[in-house]
User: Fold these one by one.
Assistant:
Number 1:
Amino acid sequence: MNHSDFLVQAAIYLASAIILVPIFKKLGLGSVLGYLIAGILIGPFALKLIADPEHVLHFAEFGVVLMLFLIGLELESQKVWELRKLLFGLGGMQVTVTIALVTVIAHLLHFSWPEALIIGMGVAMSSTAIGLTALIEKKQLHTQGGQAAFATLLFQDLSVIPLFMVLAFIAPHKTASGFDLWAVTQSIAVIAAIVLASKTVLRPIMRMVAQTGMREVFVAFSLLLVIGVSLAMASVGLSMALGTFLAGVLLADSEYRYELRLDIEPVKGLLLGLFFISVGMTVDLALVASQPMLIFGFALLIVATKLGILMGLGQMFKYPLRDKLLFGAAISQIGEFAFVIFGVALTQDSISRETYNILNAIVAVSMLVTPILLLLYDRFLNLQCGERPQDAIPENNSVIIAGFGRFGQIVGRVLIAKGITPTLIDNDPNQVDLTRQFGWRCYYGDASRLDVLEEAGIAEAKLLVIAVNDVEATLEMAKLVKERWPQVKIVVRARSRTDAFDLRELDLQPIRETFYSSLEAAKQSLIIIGETATAAGRIIKQFEKHDMEQLEATLKIRHDRKALSSQMEQGRQDLKTLLEMESNSPDT
């Protein structure tokens, strides 16, 4: 391919995405379906503008790798450890049950047992790119259903080596054992090397690169890091996405994770879009047109079967209906790894060329179904998440208020009354529009993002008031500002005692949202039932002091349920004694 051909192809990809994706997004069908349809139209089976989708598909798969790296950056190792029951329990059951059920059904449809098993293994895989992109786009990744889908997709990546061993074992002309101890040893060694490097040499190198002050060099290093980990994992037959996810998790507490996220995000978005276009180009329209009932029928049957399995597992794990539906809709398609499984099976003569072509068409059509399922999910459950561009923030003030709901508004009104103009940011577009109607200059944006804070002038600010509703965003924002701008003072609210624990671990003094209003309600209740105002005031003061001491005392043992229960019981007894002493003291 000469340079001219490359530029022409690049123009075709970009133009098709720019034209179709906004249309599908506007119609509420999601960007993924727009990319897939764009691929179908420009591919070798429609307008024939692009002749070789396979070549582009291998390159664009790197977008999935980047996405898993970015997700890993959002998760500290403790959070990943908390997902272990979902990862091995839910994920393991999904893969095992799907392979078993689909294998039996395929054999009943007159496929041989080896062919049926290959089909079962391919069908058990779901699309990481489609599932996670849709969940992130709809801001559903951190829901129960989103976490279930995420853990299941991770387990599918973990199952890569066992599935390849099975493929080698059932090959009709195998020349070696399906179990390769040396390959397993190499895999463990590579993972250990990644862990060790992240803890020892990687951060000093990142510090040296960052000290150059050249943004493009840091971007280049970020991409080199991801590519290097990917190559290391691929060299021992492991999933590249799984390896980069691990690298992301290990860097989740790094002081440079925000720069990594900002640098990689645009590249990831472009490559993921290219990946979806490439998948669309693999849809053989001639084959679909010649056997539409077979292709669409089996694609819909497989999606329905997987949806039933996923919702059944969701029921076993006692998820509410919304989360079961989200879990099922997000990953009921067949994933991109099925192309790999079927390709390997074809090269080792485990399946015929005709079967391979039909299976690939079914995989692609099943991917087209997912955006429609998620659209139906949004329509029926009224969970559509409209998006609009974040506002530019032209002003830099000494105080920034992140979150301008009922809590943030009170702080803002007091400051403005004293002649202090704060910068107001909220991530709810409806709230922003409402406050603007009453004369507030409020900006729409996510203040937990590094770029939004920088645009708001956090580096020169004296105070950040964190009053957002999202607990995770609150903690993320507090960590970011403490790490990057330690000179900025933080006033933060906590919605619960648990949130207060997390914020206290950052050396902050959180204001519990309902604590002081509840104390006032308790004081009025005491007066109504007969206590004097003075006595009630003293009781409330003692309770407040005791509760603050209890908060500090339980901070270090909050994850030890037995010790925490004992501490709380002792605290109740101490409080009872304290208030009895207070009741016996004379009023002043």
Number 2:
Amino acid sequence: MSQTALPRVTYSNIQADFSGVHDLLDTVIAKVRAELLGQAWPHRIGGEDVATGAIYEAVSPIDNRILLGRFHRADAAVVDRAVAAARAAQKSWGAMPWQDRLVAIRRFADQLEEEKFQLAVACLIEVGKSRLEAMGEAEEAIDLVRYYASQMEENDGFVRPLQRAFDNEETSDRLRPYGVFGVIAPFNFPLALSVGMLSSALIAGNTVVYKPSEFAGLTGALIMRAADAAGLPAGVLNMICGDGSTGQAMVDHPGFDGFAFTGSHKVGSDMLRKVASGAYNRPVIAEMGGKNPTYVAASAGVERAAQGMMRSAFGLQGQKCSAGSKVYVHSSIRDVFVERLVALTKAIRIGDPSGRDIFMGPIINETAFRRFEQASVDAARDGRILAGGNQLTGGIYDHGFYIEPTIVDSLPADHPLNRDELFLPFLTVQVFDDLEAAIADGNAIAYGLTAGCYASDQAEIDLFLDRAQAGALYVNRASGATTGAWPGIQTFCGWKGSGLSGKGGLGPFYLPQFMREQSHTIWKD
């Protein structure tokens, strides 16, 4: 069966028949394992391979015996070389008519589509995503490029005429590129988040130095390969690999005109302070996590709420900035809701996510596991564990960090497990009688990314939509209580500590952040 005849995988079409997709994935997984794993992947700077810097190895979280590849850690000198290449390319790329840039960018999207199964499998093996999560990410990456390109087109390149004070003057307003953007991507969505950030910068006329996560260099290398195959000019998109020290070297470099970042609140806030301390401020476009409360009202449909909560809390092992990690349940339905949620959670298949029926794979590394261990100890001491709390052992479980999805209740409202982002398959349950008070408590955190609500009473829905302090609100979604945003369908904007600009990705206000405003006044005699 051809790719075009197969159903597209998104984060919400959970009831479709994906048997054909799985059949093709069986072949692609074997091919990627045989042909792509274990290679050396250099930096890509100015259209050339650059094998400079200390070599480090990345292994799969699925099985630590699987070598993903060997990469070079970029130091300050390599960062400087990449910035210079991007600066040299930016003059012609930024001066190019935006219509011509879109032709090149759309070729890039077409190339990503051509390679989407391979890219999805790279995400699966590098991150431990389930098959359908990985395919959804590949489809999202393609749609992100095409959506942002359409935004440039619909806004006529963000050029518009202004009023005139005199008949013989011509006035206009336009958005123009900043210059060179640094793009620092996370491990959990190494394809979609990388492509979304870097394509926006490129569409706007900037050039890019891109650093994938040290855990996802293979996906980064394949993105670069697609860009080269699409014919993007040398130096327009450059990739350097490395860990946090490389990211810090980028932030410290004065040659960047802006940054796009997805990661933790602490790292993003530190980046903002560092960049703002320079000779002048430069844009830092950041999405920085969330706690993402869900409210299950007295009028809620219990089955839909339990399904949506399970998927939101435990999809991708809870390693999503939008993962539902806290649920408030009305006391009148608390017992029946929790019983159903626990049953669904205990039925989750956990294992090597290259298997068709696996919903949860491993968490990313030992650091995440130690965080889980401590959270489980705290939960047992200060509350009650309803499900999970344990590491899995035996077979494949001994070669990665596989843990049980965990549900906890009876914690004090102000307990750190109810306030802090864990980035784990870890859900806390709170009981309420007053929805307004529950929403106020859910708002009393540093984050404001997403929130969900299950209710059939319109007054309860309206109260949630009016009071919840988050950039993306969802009501009655079985596919995910707080997860599943898609380009052009839901925007993904972080309020409070979840973002910096009050404008988010996937929507119409994201692309303009990669440009600055300029007015032109031309006097004609």
Number 3:
Amino acid sequence: MIFEKPGKKSLKKTIGNILPAAVICDNRKEIIYSMRKVILILFSVFTSFFCQAQVEKKRDSLLTLAAGAKDDSTRIALLLKVSGIYSTGNFDSSFLYMNKAKKLAEEKGITGCDQYINTAFMQYYYYNNDYKSSIDYALKNLAIAEKSGDEKLLAKTYNNLAAVYNHFGNNKSAIDYSLKCLALSEKTKDSTSFPVRNLTASNTYYNLKQYDKAIYYSKRAIEFGKQFDNSFAVMMGLNNMAASYSDQHKTDTAISIYLQQLALAQKEEDLVLTCYALINLCQNYFSVNDPAAVEKYAVMLNKAAVDLPDKATLAEIRNVNALRYILRNEYTLAKAELDGGIALAKVENTDALGNLYQTYSKLYFIQNKIKQAEDYAYKYDSLQSVANIKELNFYIEDLEAKYETEKKESQIKLQQTELKQKSNFIYFLGAGVFSLVVISLLTYRNYRHRQKLQQAKIDELETEKKLTATEAVLKGEEKERTRLAKDLHDGLGGMLSGIKFSLNNMKENLIMTPDNAQAFERSIDMLDSSIREMRRVAHNMMPEMLVKYGLDTALKEFCHEIDRSGAIHASYQSVGMKDMPVDQTISVTVYRIVQELVNNAVKHAQAKNVLVQLHQSESILAVTVEDDGTGFDENTLKNSGGMGWHNIRNRVEFLKGKLDLQSGPGKGSSVMIEMNI
């Protein structure tokens, strides 16, 4: 869960609370937790440019200074500071003043303020959850930083991009820019930026569930925060480190670190961070079933929250109070707190809904109200499904934007080539006046050259058209698979689970003969098998592993599932794939190719063993699938009417790869595919 509110220093503080999803057994001693997101470190450039004071006196003072400013650059800077005052509370006013600054810069032809204007719009669209616009302005700043050659500015821009990608769930891009930022900051010895840079890295690794690295960078943030008297970095580093330990079920360690964070927040008189530390402590003490500690810190939290300006956090406080009442067995009061929290979360903080739904589910389980408990568990699962689809859409948007950019660059290069050719033609025509022979030769040469350029343009357009059509088919196929998987899981899955629940209720109210009871149990077993089969089909249509963890992990899990099914012994090997990112479109396409080849080995080759290998060396990705089946004559594939090999070849052509097939009757088969990435 993410908290976002300004603190008392000129800095936007974004804190992620650890909200446990507890499942409490009848004896209330067995508790299982799934931890939520922690910290999102915002743009470090904001710390030196935007003031967070929100009083009208401050605004009026800045506007007076802007009106009397002697130069336009100063006036633009002051308008942006006024926009910063409203950046977290009044988005319309914030947009008004940043737009005034942008128009003034355009009218006066001032380009020196572009990076600050872009940062303001990036922040505005960030808080309004407009992913595409926020990324567009962040990339504009990246172009400015690269052009200027200022490595410190480039490091700040990398940090901002990592923060934006973190916020919108694009973990692959976030870690890429985060590591670039750290490397460049160390190269330039910009040590004062180390606390924030390491906080961004710790959050990114936490989102990837690489807790050891998250803890490492949290410790570095704390170390540099102490060195440069940055108490904010120290508190946030403690928060990230505690969250990582909590996710690993090292609750005692997490609690001791949260206590350090609380002490520092109280010393700094930071009300927002104090409340967040108290919420985290209540959640973790609840996980170890310590009612006295929960009561103590909940009382402190409710006293502190009276003056808390962050209304979005009130939903989380309601959730803490509900857990507090659950420990007291005061279920009516707990329900009232949850209802109030849900009403707030739907308006102020939709991220808190999942935690409130989980707590509601636990409340009903404790009261043995299974139907209501499963209803709220289903609501929580639905929220997670929406989040996963949203993350996938971000990846698709990035791919589409990249494709359009490359297409435009290709057109520009072609136009530049044509312009250059026309200039050469004019030059040689003027020089050819001295000799008719020279004019004829140059004209013929120019004509032939233009023919080649035109043919090259036609070939390029035909290739682009073919690739576009292939890409559209593949994207359409994956989109439909994703939709069908969601419909199966959320629609048919929910219905089958409901039927099972109803049948179990009927069983308790019916008197049956032993034969009928046995038949009834067989029906329940068949229904369980149907649910498992439906989930397996949904998983095969769009594996969650592929979207979240990449190609290497997804193929490993796929082979493990095939091997566990008993249909065939499947083995998987990978070389050079550790921490090597693969483009999402390539990953999906390669996964489908391997899936088709393994299925062919199971269905048609009568193989007992199949081996899948994935190897990456520099820019070459190689995939090999071998089996010990009956094999076949390679010439028969040319006349084959099946769709399997046709689909495989189309996908290989889309990846611009090379396919090598080795097979023969009784010799098994081996398929190797190589492509540039």
Number 4:
Amino acid sequence: MTNGFFRVAAVAPHVRVADVDANVDVIIRYAAELDAKGVEVVVFPELSITGYTCGDLFHTELLLQKALAGLRRIEDFTRDKTIDLIVGLPVASEGTVFNCAAHVSKGVSTIIRKTYIPNYNEFYERRWFAPAPNDEYQPVILTHGVYIGMEICEDLWVTVPPSCSLAMAGAEVIFNLSASDELVGKHASSLTLIRQQSARCKAGYVYASAGRGESSSDVVFSVADIDIAALRHDRIHSSTFADCARRHGRQAPRLTEIPPESPFDMDYGLTYRTIDPHPFVPSDPTSLADTCEEVDHILVTALSQRLTAIGCRRAVIGISGGLDSTLALLITVRTFDRLGYDRSGIIGITMPGFGTTDRTYTNALEMMRCLGITMREIPISTAVMQHFADIGHDPQVHDAAYENAQARERTQILMDVANQEEAIVIGTGDMSEIALGWCTYNGDQMSMYSINAGVPKTLIRSIVSWFASQAEPKLAATLADVVSTPISPELTPADSEGAIKQKTEDLVGPYELHDFFLFYFIRFGFSPRRIYYLALNAFRGAYAPEVIMHWLRTFCRRFFTQQFKRQAMPDGPKVGSVGLSPRGDWRMPSDSTAAMWLRQLDEI
């Protein structure tokens, strides 16, 4: 295991039934090829040394002897190799024959017996093989810094597979040797079952199958890098997994050896795993549309519940013409429609200031017109200039006080209008901004319900585009322009041509990078070194390594120093597996320091 990744392979070779020497030749040849690719464990199908369809030959002396001799050849092959092999063979013992799997590493084999022997439909295994004794539990094996277990074909299909006990005993990757026949719908059913078992066991699952008549084609193999670090995080984070292991721990071996720390190598290539640069945004168009629809449903349901619970039929939203306020407005409109409330109860307020551009101002007004809500325009420049005079601030100094005074003035207007109208203020800030603290404390950081708090910036852009695809032409065109507008708080004056000058991503960094950092920091608790390594793979060709490092340092520093803002977050709905609410998702003292995280980046 390197960098927390465990490289595995599953092979479906062309098998010569009952020709052990030929089968072992194939196994060794392809194991050597995979060893050169850095594979650490490769699994071959059930009874791969002899072939699955030997029938009554399984009870012949020669076949059984040759099978063991073939295993000895494989042991000899592994003595000076890094790769481990898992192969299948029949073994005569205790006056009967068992269908076995052998894990072979450095010349040593660990053999397990198939637990459940099928004898129904097309399967007739009980004629040749006996099941493992009822009190026999499979061993958990430590190899390459990872705990692994094995089960054979039918073992996966029973009500309580051996892999459950193996996982509770510490196995992090399960290898299954199968020889299932191909029937209509069976492949999809098998894939679903494997995914469910992997999720249930919080373990990687590697499956090799030869097919009913054995493989009739040339060798087929698949290689993958399994993220062991992510699996270990999920096991630690899920209290019920440990509870289940303690409850059933007597049924499986107890582990006492702590696996060694995974070596780290920045040059280690993830040849067999693709790192998605946008973990919050599905790359498949159908999946993305489904995600957008689901998020829409969650947000509308959450806001509906809040309005109903407090008996409120009016809402106030600051409309800037940017992405966040656009999504908040669209969700509020959908909510009012679902509840049967008149859209006039939504009061959209545009508050032009020193940095407001014609583009965002026009889009804000057009959206409100198209959606049929109550429109108000309240310029803030005069009030803010008076405030500058009151506190003795030079308006030519465009510092934090200059910017934040505008944000707080807008929030004051929204809150006071909400009081006048017996309404609630719908917050517009998103999860990415909350993570970075890119909001004004007691300004846009505050609202009466933060509808976007669980949605990252990269996903908001996709959701607004999804809304545009369903909207009438005029609104669709406006939403499309909102999506293509540079992200900006517009708190400093525009450039000489009236275009946005203050671009957020120039100041705080690209949101696609920060959302990537956020996902892996919160979802898996990864170290900054590992996040940097993943980002190098995910954004290869898009960002130079020094750019990724610069913005990762920014993320670490801001995430820690801005926790005090998250501690005072208003309520908002949780949308996905990553959340930052201090009440339910992320609890961290505001005086925590990023020093250790930043030092690790310094050491790279």
